[in-house]
Write a structure and sequence with these properties.
19 helices
């Protein structure tokens, strides 16, 4: 099955000649020299200034004997300097590649995969990247290897090459370099220009790291259409900065991933705590925003609709299926493409229709994309279907297939989508993890809907009940791990390689069904099962038995302490009830000492204070039986014994009460199994 766009722009008239994205930028620099090109906080760089600065750096590069189509790696934390540098590389006839300076380990891997002719980086960033002696380094404001740059030369800069333009990195957990030519970079821009209806007045903000495809190829959407790039003042956008920047700079187009879109649109107004279906009101502070382009990972229809609700009428939300090999193009979807409302929006992620110039084919359930401007077909490794309504639907990734407990291979995407159908689940990943005693088990990693606490997430029993009859029994996860947010790559894709190992996951008892988060368990290294008696049952059964036993031994341990001879009723009866209560409290304290720590740890108030409070409560219950019996046998004038009893019992009782008070007022730690 094949799908092509219904319409596409004709090739630019100069396309057969020397037309490139660099020429498109140059045209805007000549037509609107004073228009803003880069906006960083309160600082604005006009097109004319950006053009001149990139000219000077381009001459530095050519004077430094950069070969034609020479590869230049860029490691600059200030994105305004980065944009200047990549323009300069293109003007010098080179090929640019942006490195990850936020994560030196990732940047070193990228640098090793490139083997560039030149590295443009500051002294500190070059040191962090551990650039070898074989890499020539140009520091900003200096010549190659630190020499002072020559003065700017008069005349036009050298013409760019017509082969390679950039090396982009995929958004996988281990990024892979992909060379991109001038023709593809321009064709991708033209596809975006038609799809997004780009205008010269647009101000674009990219939340992804500059080394990722959305920015490394997407800068053209702003600077080739006469728009402006809104950049962070630091190396990357920090939480909360994007929303403020959209307001302050009146951003009209935001390019982000699903998590970034939720932070921007849903963080300011979380949904109702009862998790009932809701419709959010538009955020008046984001009235400048006319387009939200979401890429990097699957976007479900219910999320898509929630984002749309938060934008002003007429604004658009695009779900973009963007491939690095296609320079950030592929397919796109927005809600008006739907011929009718669909049931189960929390289970469906639509890719829509191809970008102009692209063609998408579904072969044996896998997606193949022909990039814009021609070129070899791209085997994406992603799964999908062409629906009867003509829209492409995402079906997961072939590389994510995992082995179920019966040995069959399953696609986790349908299972994760079914888990998302639970009203209390925002995002879900299912992974195969090793367990104690050997073997593997399926584990569901869950995070709540945006703005809701972890307590709403289902435990293992509730999740299994939700999935009963909907998925094969061997595909049902054995355990649940609650997280504040699922790990993602810098490109915004959920990162299955970084999910944490559950704190405790033991092999399940055959045929057993237990309580607790992970269901029935058996102790590692033992053959039999270990059933854990609930605390309430333990107290109800054990405390009376131990209490009566203690009462019967009272006269043996402390002869005469409970002798009520000569005490008239009803006082004798009241005293006997007191002795019974003390004995029962002793029994309850002993039971709590051995079975109360686990339930207290579940309150997540800290291991240290929980241990102290557990012992304090046990002491408060146990101490009354020996204390009162010893007091009744002590003579009132026996001051040494009276003092010993006070300091042995009364003072510790005060300390124990203080510990319990601290524990009761201690704020519980995060209920998530993992916060990051």
């Amino acid at each position: 099955m094949t799908q092509s766009p219904q319409s596409s722009q004709p090739d630019h008239p100069a396309r057969q000649g020397a037309d490139t994205v660099l020429h498109r930028f140059g045209e805007w620099a000549r037509r609107t020299p004073e228009a803003p090109a880069l906006i960083t906080g309160d600082e604005t760089v006009p097109y004319a200034v950006l053009d001149a600065e990139s000219d000077r750096l381009a001459r530095d590069l050519t004077d430094g004997n950069l070969p034609a189509n020479g590869l230049v790696a860029l490691a600059l934390p200030r994105q305004s300097e980065l944009v200047t540098a990549l323009l300069a590389v293109l003007k010098a006839g080179g090929v640019y590649a942006v490195l990850d300076v936020a994560d030196p380990r990732g940047g070193r891997r990228q640098l090793a995969a490139l083997a560039p002719d030149l590295l443009i980086a500051g002294h500190a960033d070059a040191a962090r990247l551990d650039a070898g002696k074989g890499v020539r380094i140009l520091h900003p404001g200096r010549g190659a290897d630190g020499a002072a740059p020559p003065p700017p030369l008069p005349g036009p800069p050298p013409a760019p090459g017509h082969g390679g333009a950039a090396v982009l990195f995929t958004g996988a957990a281990t990024p892979r370099p992909v060379p991109v030519g001038h023709a593809l970079l321009l064709a991708a821009y033209e596809g975006w220009a038609e799809t997004a209806r780009l205008t010269p007045g647009d101000r674009h903000l990219f939340t992804a790291g500059p080394d990722t495809t959305p920015f490394a190829a997407g800068w053209t959407r702003a600077l080739c259409s006469g728009g402006a790039l809104v950049l962070p003042e630091t190396a990357a956008w920090l939480p909360g900065q994007v929303w403020r920047a959209v307001r302050k700079a009146e951003v009209s187009v935001v390019h982000t991933d699903p998590a970034g879109a939720a932070d921007l649109l849903l963080a300011q107004e979380p949904p109702a705590s009862d998790i009932a279906p809701f419709r959010l009101a538009p955020d008046a502070e984001l009235r400048s925003l006319r387009l939200l382009a979401v890429s990097g990972d699957r976007l479900y229809l219910d999320e898509h609709s929630a984002f749309q609700d938060r934008l002003r009428p007429g604004a658009r939300v695009l779900n973009v299926y963007a491939l690095t090999e296609a320079a950030g193009t592929g397919a796109w979807f927005e809600l008006p493409q739907l011929p009718r409302p669909l049931d189960g929006p929390e289970r469906i992620s639509l890719l829509g229709t191809p970008f102009p110039g692209c063609r998408v084919r579904v072969l044996d359930g896998q997606l193949t994309v022909d990039p814009p401007g021609g070129g070899e077909a791209i085997a994406t490794g992603d799964l999908g279907v062409l629906r009867p309504d003509g829209l492409l639907e995402f079906g997961g990734r072939a590389a994510d297939r995992i082995e179920a407990e019966d040995g069959t291979r399953i696609d986790p995407y349908p299972l994760e989508s079914e888990i998302r159908a639970h009203a209390s689940v925002g995002t879900a990943l299912v992974a195969r993890v090793p367990v104690a005693g050997g073997g593997h088990r399926l584990v569901a990693y869950l995070s709540p809907p945006h703005g809701l606490p972890a307590e709403v997430l289902p435990d293992t029993a509730r999740l299994r009940e939700h999935l009963k009859g909907k998925v094969p029994a061997d595909a049902v996860p054995r355990a649940v791990v609650r997280m504040r947010a699922l790990p993602r790559t810098r490109a915004g894709r959920e990162d299955r390689t970084q999910v944490p190992q559950p704190p405790l996951l033991l092999a399940p008892v055959a045929g057993g069904r237990g309580g607790g988060k992970y269901g029935g368990v058996r102790t590692s290294g033992t053959a039999g099962s270990q059933e854990v008696l609930p605390l309430g049952s333990a107290l109800g059964c054990g405390a009376p038995l131990l209490g009566l036993l203690a009462l019967s031994f009272t006269s043996v341990i402390w002869p005469g302490s409970t002798d009520l001879t000569g005490v008239p009723n009803p006082w004798a009866a009241l005293f006997w009830i007191l002795y019974l209560c003390e004995s029962l409290a002793f029994g309850a304290g002993v039971v709590f000492l051995f079975s109360g720590r686990g339930p207290m740890l579940a309150q997540r108030r800290g291991r240290g204070i929980t241990t102290a409070a557990h012992l304090a409560i046990a002491y408060l219950l146990i101490a009354w039986w020996p204390q009162d019996n010893l007091y009744r046998l002590a003579a009132k004038q026996d001051w040494p014994r009276q003092a010993a009893l006070v300091y042995a019992f009364n003072v510790p009782l005060m300390i124990a009460a203080l510990v319990v008070a601290i524990y009761a007022t201690r704020k519980p730690v995060s209920p998530f199994d993992f916060d990051d």
